[in-house]
Specification:
The protein has helices at 11-33, 45-74, 81-97, 103-125. By secondary structure, the protein is mainly α. 74% of the residues lie in helices and 0% in strands. Helix 1 (11-33) packs antiparallel against helix 2 and helix 3 runs antiparallel to helix 4. It is elongated and about 50 Å long. It contains four helices and no strands. The relative contact order is 0.15.
């Protein structure tokens, strides 16, 4: 179990896991292109890699930065604890499901992640 401090501000979980995910995505994509596929992807490897780099890695980095910076800009408390955990869980579940043949399931959780992202960010900014 991660500590309460880890979930107190958004850049900690999102930056840490986006870095780890980017290395894993590169490893999977490279091995698949070399013919050593060990994951049953639902889409061609190059499409999957592009989607994960844009929506997975950059989505997490954007969330970590904007939720940390927006609370500083507005003087409001940062997104933390349960809300941050729910946002991160939607992101993480989409990443895990992207490694399975269930394409629509991971796209569904990507939509949940970005919907929660916009909802929580608008509450901070407005």
């Amino acid at each position: 179990m991660l500590s309460k401090t880890f979930w107190s501000i958004a850049f900690r979980p999102f930056f840490l896991f986006s870095i780890a995910w980017s290395f894993l995505v590169l490893l999977i994509w490279t091995s698949t292109n070399q013919g050593y596929a060990f994951v049953n992807l639902s889409t061609p490897a190059s499409y999957w890699h592009g989607h994960e780099m844009i929506f997975g890695v950059m989505g997490a980095i954007l969330a970590g930065f904007l939720f940390t910076a927006s609370s500083n800009w507005t003087g409001t408390p940062p997104l933390s604890d349960g809300k941050l955990q729910s946002l991160f869980s939607a992101w993480a579940l989409a990443r895990i499901l992207s490694l399975t043949p269930f394409q629509y399931a991971y796209l569904f959780f990507d939509l949940i992640f970005f919907s929660l992202f916009l909802y929580y960010l608008s509450k901070i900014l407005f």
